[in-house]
Structure formats: structure tokens, C-alpha cells
Amino acid sequence: MKKLASELYDLLQIIAPSGKEERVVRYIKPKMEKWLDHVWIDHYGNLLGERQCGTGNGPTILLSAHMDSVDGVEPYREVRREEDVFYSSAGILGADDRAGMAIVMAVIRQIGATKFNGKLKVAFTREEEIGRRGSQALDPAWLHDVELAIVVDRRGNRDIVTSFADVQPFCHPAVGQFFEEAGRICGMPDWKSVRGGISDACTFASYGINSVNLSAGYRYEHTWDEFVSITSCKETVQLIVTALDMVGKRGMKLQNFCSLTGSVI
Ligand SMILES: [Zn+2]
Question: By the 8 A CB rule, do 23 and 65 touch?
Fold first, then answer.
């Protein structure tokens, strides 16, 4: 997983506020192409990909993070590393949400070693920070077969965000419990379902897709105190890989609890 830290460092170097995500696309697209069957840019500039895993007959799962950061990256700042942590010498770091992207990339590299059997979809979205414009511009037809959306854009570690405050549920409670179980299985029993803020999970859930927003390891986002823990990023990779492995081993079980969604959201 050394790769995760070096890729995260590269992503943090790129200045790409909302609306100016092209440099992120240019950096990450060739890397996605190595691991996914198809990678393309949609009409809005979102970067999308797909990969069939195993026979492809199982569920379709979406992994998502946003490419933009809020304004406030100082052009001459340095990204510094101190032991487990990246921080910025001045201004915001922008680990919200490059950390989410690095985590998704690490999962993609490990998916072949799991029992997951189905279709993996990846969405790196634009303009999340200015009203989720990128995710809302995604083609609903591309999302229609997605049974579970895993967004990685929550501060801190070991949070499974299952609703926006008490305003909008993202998923059936069983989905949060499923991720808590995945945490227990991989030795992190304190992954917990919590309420959270606005993220692209709001968009996916609005289509009736079971969605969660997982911790991406950054803290104090949007401020000069922002930092990101590499260990926390790796823990989230571990959780997602374990969850995908469980889906592969249990097959229909995920589809069963996904079928409950319609009456809940
Ligand atoms: Zn974010």
C-alpha cells in the first residue's frame, strides 16, 4: 500500500478548485485505465469507469469521490509529510477529497484479490463543493443498475455516514450494519453508522440507491489546519475491500437487502 501514499501525495500537489478539475483528470485517467475495462469522461467532465469482476453476474457497486477542492490552496505552498500525516505549509491541503480518490484507486488495485463477483463502477465527480453539480449531471441511465454506492468523502476515521442529518436517509439500516460487520471482520469493530453532512451520497440516494459515505482520513477540511492520516486512508481501503469480499462470498444476500430499499428511501 506504499502506492496509496505516493499517489495521494501526487494528487495533493494538484491545484484543482471546483470547475477546474482537468489536471486531476489528466493525472488519474491513465492510472484508472490500467485497472478498469472502460474509462471515459462524460458530457459534464466527470471521470467514469467500469470493470467486470469474476463472471460479472453479481451486483453492481459504485465507488465515488470528488475531484474538486474548495478554493484556498496557496499556489506556492508545499505538501509536507510528518510520519503518518500530510499537511500544507500554507492554506488548505485539499485532502477533501483527494484522499477519497486515493482510497478508491487502492481498492481498484486490490479488487482482483477478493471474491467480489459483479460489476464495479467508478465515478470521480466534479464540482461537489459548489452544490454537487457533477454528481447531479451523471446520466441516470448509467446509475440505474447500481445497487450500492460507496462514497468516500467523510472526515475522520471509521465513520459510516448513512444519512444527511436526519433529513435524508442514504440507505436501509441493514446496509450500515453490513459495513459495521465488515469492520468487525477486519479487526476494526469501531466502524459505526453515523449521521453526516452533504456529499455526493445525497445525489445517489435521491435515485433510491443504497449509499454510504465513508471516512477518508482527512480532518479540519476547508481550513489551514487540514491534514490527512495515511493510516486512516488504509483502514478505509481495508474496510471496502473486506465489504466487497463479503458481497462476493454471500452473493444474493446483498441483493436481498438492496431490494428493501425502495420502500425505505
Ligand atoms: Zn468533500
Answer: no
Task: Give the Å distance between the CA of 89 and the centre of ligand 1.
Answer: 21
Question: What is the DSSP code (8-state) at residue 69?
Answer: B
- The CA distances from residue 154 to 94, 148, 160, 264, in Å, are 13, 17, 8, 23
Centre of ligand 1 to C-alpha 129, Å, is: 7
| Three cell numbers written together for 68 | 474538486
**pLDDT tens per residue, range 132-156:** 999 999 999 999 999 999 999 999 9
DSSP 185-212: HTT-TT-EEEEE---HHHHHHHTT-EEE
How remote is the CA of residue 35 from the centroid of ligand 1, in Å? 24
At the topology level of CATH, where does 15-72+94-218+228-264 sit?
Answer: Aminopeptidase (3.40.630)
Q: Let me know if 28 is exposed, middle or buried by CB neighbors in 10 A (0-12, 13-18, 19+).
A: buried
For residue 126, report the distance from its CA to the centre of ligand 1, in Å: 11
Whole-model pTM: value is 0.95
Per-residue model confidence as pLDDT tens digits over 55-111:
888 899 999 999 999 998 999 999 999 999 999 999 999 999 999 999 999 999 999
161 CA distance to ligand 1 middle (Å):
13
Domain ranges of the chain: 15-72+94-218+228-264
Is residue 150 within 8 A of residue 62, CB to CB? The reply is: yes
Q: Report CA(195)–ligand 1 centroid distance (Å).
A: 15
